[in-house]
Design brief:
Helix content is 45%, strand content 12%. It is an alpha/beta fold and 317 residues long. It folds into 2 domains: 149 residues, no CATH class; 155 residues, no CATH class. Strands 2-1-5-8 form a 4-stranded parallel sheet. Strands 4-3-6-7 form a 4-stranded mixed sheet, with no helix packed on it. β6 and β7 form a beta hairpin. α3 runs parallel beside α5, α11 runs antiparallel to α12 and α12 runs antiparallel to α13. It starts with a strand and ends in an 18-residue tail after the last helix. This is DUF1722 domain-containing protein. It holds the Pfam family 2-thiour_desulf. InterPro entries: 2-thiour_desulf, DUF1722, UCP037004.
Amino acid sequence: MDQKLNIGVSACLMGQEVRFNGGHCQNHFLRTTVAEYASFFPTCPEVAIGMGIPRETVRLEYDENENVRMRAPKSGEDYTETMNAYAKDWSDQLDQLDLDGFVFTKNSPSCGVFRVKIYKNDQPAERRGTGLFAKAIMDKFPELPVEEDGRLSDPVLRESFITRIFAFRRVKDLFFENWTRKDVIEFHSREKYLLMAHCPKTYRELGRVVGNMATYTREEFHMIYLKTFMTGINNKASKGRHHNALTHMAGYLKNHLSKEGRQELANTIDSYRQGFIPLSVPMTLISHMLRRFNENYLLQQTYLSPHPHEMALRNHS
């Protein structure tokens, strides 16, 4: 890549003291590891709409029509319309910002993505909501990879998110200027095993889309391919799918290896599937063998290096 990634982020995760209590929740992984490869676009929607620092707490509540509102339970102030208006203005800028991903703050009534509490009268809160600002961004651009800061402490989810944002950057770069059918076919070929690890069905579907490229306008094909590609990549890669992709790659080496060598590779891949070793071990072994036997088609696969090795994300996944 010749340019840094563009990542939207809740401002408190960058160390800005904008939380309701005047503090922050700086995310070390973003500020150190990711910062080497990305430019950040921070925002705190609650501060942006004038709620102040510090400020009273707000939460999501159902109104009498089962609509979700963002209210301050102490004062009764309703910030829903103001927040929705700000979220719309921000989401309307997404094309200009050219974001590759967004990291939101967990549990936030404005920025939470998963299982945000929604209250109704005196009943126990339901953990089924999404913050108003985060929802607007996700609705506007469903292909955009998103994650919460708390989930980035999980090595599998962390690796998945970084894989997704780099993939989004690649597919956007593919269609940046005067792309050709040859460019698309080469891209699709390079992404084969990464797609197989995330969603084999999407790989097959995209193959049909590429095969029928002549039936679409350029803009139609661009949007269909990008949306379908990211739908597949945004699926979580499972150990079973990784095992399947690695086994397919190992098949290219069967004529180069002795019986013992084939068994060693198969055992290593299976040890990963059973959770005994991290993904980096079979990846390193198979990459070494591919270089040794000059299997150039597989050496070009994005799957072998979907993000910089220096990030060491597969050492724990």
